[in-house]
What we know:
Strand content: 15-25%
Order of helices and strands: HEEEEEEE
Helix content: under 10%
Number of helices: 1
CATH class of the domain at 31-76 and 85-120: Mainly Beta
Number of strands: 7
Radius of gyration: 38 Å
Largest sheet: 4 strands, antiparallel
CATH architecture of the domain at 31-76 and 85-120: Sandwich
CATH topology of the domain at 31-76 and 85-120: Immunoglobulin-like
Amino acid sequence: xxxxxxxxxxxxxxxxxxxxxxxxxxxxxxxxxxxxxxxxxxxxxxxxxxxxxxxxxxxxxxxxxxxxxxxxxxxxxxxxxxxxxxxxxxxxxxxxxxxxxxxxxxxxxxxxxxxxxxxxxxxxxxxxxxxxxxxxxxxxxxxxxxxxxxxxxxxxxxxxxxxxxxxxxxxxxxxxxxxxxxxxxx
Length: 186
């Protein structure tokens, strides 16, 4: 079992962030091209990739479902060039980042061999919902619009006659039959 990074109760509901960080750390053992992810504001992120030697025409950024995919393919312009030592890699790459739900790609630019991609999570609109409190036995009954409906109920009337109170004789109540405590019959 993996140790949890966010153990505080203040981080409840942020499991997707932990899972995303775990996936990024496990994905692609090939570290090319190296990249940084930085927070640029309360709802902004920036991914920066070191792509020295690549032009804008060599790079492609696509968003496929919830993945941001960056591809780079350098064209071989070494027409007739003979390399005695080739230490600068001229290879293709593909780097994918899993985007959390709601993340939008705002833009990208190439500057001094660094590809910057700005991302933003739109601020959710603040919604206030008032929950109506109902009486104990009224669960499950609604007005049809999702709000609880209070139903006033009448006490049930019994068809059987009331039993007399102990110690008092009611002339309307039937007299008891059977032996009395002294053994006399009524």
